[in-house]
Amino acid sequence: MSSVKLHSAEVVGIDGQIIDVEIDLSPGLFSFSIVGLADKAVDESRHRIAAAIKNSGARSPQKKNQRVTVSLAPADLKKEGPAFDLPIALAYMLVSGQAKFNPAGKIFLGELALDGMLRPIRGALSLALAAKERGFSEIYVPPGNGAEAAFAADIAVF
Question: Phi, psi (5° rounding) for residue 10?
Fold first, then answer.
């Protein structure tokens, strides 16, 4: 498997917008790029993600000669904040064969600390409501966001 797609979301105004997180691995000299109109916090996530993966005991993207390309879509919507850390890290773990799970019907949100722990994000309720409206059945959020996201009925919150 050389590419994987997961889903995340971000707050736009007061509403949640679903974001596709796609990742592709290809042979070549190491590079890790994020495309899709990402702000500085999203672009910097590649450093947090690499450290979090390494410090969680898995093989960091930097340990192999490979090109890692992350696409956040829709490309014309500015992506802001660190909420994409977790879905990017999980997508990398899937595409590199270090994890196995079915991402269908699931939304992933969370900022990663360098040690791999999750930090809360803003707008968990809006994002859970948007996920439910778009037909997702599960949402994965940092522990500090669980109670807020649980106010959205009919979606399982982890």
Answer: -145, 160
Whether residue 107 contacts residue 84, with contact meaning beta carbons closer than 8 Å, is answered with no
Task: Write down the pLDDT at residue 1.
Answer: 64
Q: Domain residues for 68?
A: 3-157
CATH classification of the domain holding 116: 3.30.230.10
Query: How many domains does the structure of the chain reveal?
Result: 1
**Mean per-residue pLDDT of the chain:** 92
Would you tell me how many other CB atoms lie within 10 Å of the CB of residue 70? 23
Q: Rounded to two decimals, what is the model's pTM? A: 0.93
121, 110 Cβ separation under 8 angstroms: yes
Pseudo-torsion of CA 45, 19, 120, 15, nearest 10°? 140
Nearest to 18 by CA among 130, 133, 137: 130
CA 57, CA 116: separation in Å to the nearest integer?
Answer: 9
Longest dimension (CA), the chain: 46
Q: Residues 129-139: pLDDT tens digits?
A: 999 999 999 99
Is residue 141 very low, low, confident or very high in pLDDT (cuts 50, 70, 90)?
very high
Two tokens at 123? 């707008």
